[in-house]
């Protein structure tokens, strides 16, 4: 006697399989890395490329493989938080205004709040838990699953959510409640920490990608610092000379008594004159 299969059973099995496959997909977007790592990528893009780079360039600057899972996760997270835009055709990655804000010390807090709320899962979790203490990990994982995160990804989603909430200061330090932090509006006159565009100017070495208002003497010192990639090979004797100049300027500007000692092994340092501004060893 032949075994026969009812066509409706085949259709049912296929539909069930398709449904299971659909349920295994993420139904709500969330990043696989936290906002802090996305911020690091944005800062590297600004510091090393002035805000624009090819994918392979940026991966190399971050000491990662352009095709590796770690870099791809960070790239996807930075895009989801709104820090970068990318042209898949050309492979060029560009910083956004939000990305520039998050690497600006004066605008960082507000940028983090906005970026956190751009993530669909995080925004949904905010609506669900706003004003309350976050529940234990197991309960949080049940929540993210209810919102559309697959079972297999619930732990990762919960961890990234909690870490990002902590970095963006959605966990109130006094009460422990999950609330949106208060952000002080930035006045234009206070915005002295704006990010410099890399326009190809040779004077922009990349060592000082952020403009601040300092005394001209201090600014002159900062301008003498080598680029970040040259720090590892900066001779210790030159470092000591820079520090001595800094000591002289700091003492002159502060008008305080005391001595700032800068010494270098094997080097004979000059003895300062009594009462001189450059009172160092």
Automatic annotation (TrEMBL):
Biased composition (Basic and acidic residues): 185-200
Name the record gives this protein: Uncharacterized protein
Region (Disordered): 1-23, 182-213
